[in-house]
Amino acid sequence: MRCPECSNTSNKVLETRLSKDRNILRRRRQCNSCNTRFSTQEEMVRGDLMVIKSGGRKEDFNIQKVREGLQLALRKRPVGDDAINEAVENIKLSVSDRLDREVFSHEIGEMVMIELKRLDEVAYVRFASVYREFKDASEFIETIQSMQSVDYDSDQQ
Ligand SMILES: [Zn+2]
């Protein structure tokens, strides 16, 4: 990191900021020789995120699979692409915070369900009934009942 004025490589960091998407680190620096202030940007390079499956097997995290899961659950539901993209971004942001670079597959399932519950109750039930391993029927019924207390939109079924 050279000073743009005198090319000195010694400087101090005055301020560090992380961009909103958490991918770029912006630093305000001051040259230790001529006191010129300048900014630098550093792109964050992180290791690949691994998904730990229920059997303990690991595989690369694939955001496309999350998107496909959401699209499948939301098939023929009145939810637009923008809303799906936002949900995908929310999940991407949640998993990219993982310092250990590992996430359990059931945690991703939970994140998907949180987004679905927000987007569309019918799609939420559809997804939950397929992906969540209900311990028994009463647990499933409890989930349905807790949702019936939520106000539905006009597309009640
Ligand atoms: Zn300088």
UniProtKB/TrEMBL annotation:
GO terms for biological process: negative regulation of DNA-templated transcription. Binds 1 zinc ion. GO terms for molecular function: ATP binding; DNA binding; zinc ion binding. It comes from the Bacteria. Its cofactor is Zn(2+). A zinc finger (unnamed) spans 3-34. Keywords: ATP-binding, DNA-binding, Metal-binding, Nucleotide-binding, Repressor, Transcription, Transcription regulation, Zinc, Zinc-finger. Residues 49-139 form the ATP-cone domain. Negatively regulates transcription of bacterial ribonucleotide reductase nrd genes and operons by binding to NrdR-boxes. Belongs to the NrdR family. This is Transcriptional repressor NrdR. It comes from Lentisphaera araneosa HTCC2155.
